[in-house]
Design goal:
By secondary structure, this protein is α+β, with helices and mostly antiparallel strands. It has 1 helix and 4 strands. The chain is elongated and about 35 Å long.
């Protein structure tokens, strides 16, 4: 399992990445604000296709940014 951290605006996201099978990853993403406060619905689990040869960190960053934009209005 790999853990990656991202900060976007006032939000901090920590993503734990696990390979479920070849080409399929699961990210458990915990989101907190700049004070470290997390709401009850701040943990998200996303299963996504991993493209061979792509950087897992970059794919996860795109996923986290999309999640923050859609759920938190960033």
């Amino acid at each position: 399992m790999q853990t990656l951290s991202y900060t976007v605006g006032q939000w901090r996201a920590e993503a734990q990445i696990e390979e479920l099978e070849t080409g399929k990853l699961m990210a458990v993403i915990s989101v907190t604000d700049d004070k470290g406060t997390a709401s009850a619905d701040s943990k998200h689990t996303v299963v996504f296709e991993h493209q061979a040869g792509m950087d897992t960190g970059r794919e996860t960053e795109v996923l986290v940014r999309r999640l923050l934009r859609e759920r938190y209005g960033i």
